[in-house]
Amino acid sequence: MNIILTSQALIFIPIVFSVLIYLFNNKFVSYIAYVAQIFLTIFSFIMWKYLIKNGVITILLGGWNKSIGIELRIDNLSMLFITMTVLIWWLVLIYSWEQKKKDYKFLFFLLFLEGSFIALLQSNDLFTLFVLIEIVTILSSILIIYKKDGKSLKSGLFYLLFNSFSMMIYLLGIILIYIKVGTLNMSQIREYILANLSSNQSVYINVSFACFIVVMSVKSAVFPVYEWLPRAHTASQTSVSTLLSGLLVKTGIYGMIRFLYVFNNNNIYEFLFLLGAFTAITGAIFAISQKDIKAMLAFSTISQIGLIVISLSTNSDIGFIGAYLHIFNHFLFKSLLFLGVGILINEYGLRRINQIKGIGRSHPLLSICMIIGILSMTGFPLQIGFLSKSMIKYSFTSNVKLLVFQFSSFLTIIAFIKFSSIFFGKPEVIKTLKKNQIFSITILTLICILAFFIELKFIPSFIRINGSDISSSMVYIIKKINLNIYSKMLIKNIIDYFIMVILGFYIYKYFIKTERRVFYKIRNYKVNYQNAILLLMLFLSVTIKIVN
């Protein structure tokens, strides 16, 4: 099969099928949403097979000169995100099908968003990337406000306006880089920068780099530009929250990785560590303080994004692979938890953690699935979270970074001890759950279990896609993680984990459960739109100073 057509089919199949669903407005036509997913699954498999055998794919569209044309680039990072996209859309379709199969507008926006997001992942020039990020932002905003109540409308508009303002900064970065380099092609920009490393980098290049990093920080909800995420997560439907937290929030991480590679600016990495540390710790503290169960998951997403940024700040192959692993693993276990929580909210109409009781008794299968997600999130040694967190931990050469990592991980354990209270007690009402929703969460749980056994084995092939050989240090770290799982070290790691859990339980019981005033203040702290813009501009100013 022609690989160029395959790459473009990944973009246009969901878009074309979304238009057909919208035009025909027929419940039978709606089923072509599944046909689209089948095609995307097949084509994704073909792309993986081609990449592993032949390496990175670059496609120049329209026969234009590379410096002014639209170029597609598909590498290991692109395919990782494309795989996540296809998988999460499968799960969301199955999960929401009984409620949404006759909602043709929802299916239209959902599939159109999928095609647009896959196009974004293949883009290799700055302006096409800008256009597609804007399209994805608008479609996401529509899905956030789709409930059509006051809270979702307000949250959706905040998300749209704040992200749109940040994209003005992105445009400034485009202008500056074009003035200096004369192209928006990311590969050519990298070649230009590498060719001029011996001389002092232009202020134009450094300021444009700062603009891009700040915008991607907004997209990934890094503190202090995070406010849109908890608003959007708590106000939107469960299927949309799952897309936002599992995948779309990582658009910023995807862009950040791209720009770190293109601009090759070593001044940024210590600053990234500070951003990641602040994000990981404060995100976990905000999660602990929440009473709304979706808000807790939203802030824990911010905390995990902080860990990914810390991993990137090491500027090492181990750190980057650790970030890739945690991007994928967080996508799995956080989607699992959001879908599980969505089932509870939809069936019981309750959102406060202290109001949800006895899920372990009333819904044992759902509880098992969610507990696997919690164990993964908190780094239990026999779950996927342990693999990626171990890779991140071993990338550190500084005790300070290791201490921040361990502290934020401990805070995460405390947050999910609080979350786990929903499994205990006597259920007041027992309701029958929808089969399609239980099926989707069960499938996702099985994928989490399967991923634990194959992730480390796939890393060498994943690295070679981009034409790199696996380093001796990476081989050593993979062996070390395997020893932690398949040797006597496993018992020690499990004991260490449960010591952290026991310590976390007592801190929760005697300090957090009593609902001290400080947690009330943290929970009710909000940043309004005007202050969010001020924080964004201050963040930009500091970043410009750092990179120059």
Plain-language structure description:
Its main location: membrane. This is Proton-conducting transporter membrane subunit. It is found in: Cell membrane; Membrane. By secondary structure, the chain is mostly helical. It has a domain at about 265-515. The protein is about 75% helix and about 0% strand. The chain contains 23 helices and 2 strands. The chain has helices at about 5-25, 30-55, 75-100, 105-120, 125-145, 150-180, 185-195, 205-220, 230-235, 240-245, 250-265, 270-290, 295-310, 315-350, 360, 365-375, 385-395, 400-420, 435-465, 470-485, 490-510, 515-525, 530-545; strands spanning about 55-60, 70-75. A two-stranded antiparallel sheet has the order 1-2. The longest helix is centred in the first third of the chain and has 32 residues, at about 150-180.
